[in-house]
């Protein structure tokens, strides 16, 4: 059986809403930029490995995708 709670269920603790909002904002930013980085890596791999364009073209494609993401997310 469940025991009695060791905290007051009638008076919950106050929440720090500004900190919650900052944490959520950081989570969204990390998700957004992480997704952009993964897409840029995959495009670079596509250009370098599948299309056979070489390392320099692969790095340029990676940089171009990140630049486009920066312009879109601004």
TrEMBL record:
Keywords: Membrane, Transmembrane, Transmembrane helix
Domain annotation Cytochrome c oxidase subunit IV bacterial aa3 type: ranges: 13-47
Gene3D superfamilies listed in its UniProt record: Bacterial aa3 type cytochrome c oxidase subunit IV (1.20.5.160)
Superkingdom of the source species: Bacteria
TM region(s), chain numbering: 27-47, 53-73
Pfam families: COX4_pro_2 (PF07835)
Protein name: Cytochrome c oxidase subunit IV bacterial aa3 type domain-containing protein
Species this protein is from: Aurantimonas endophytica
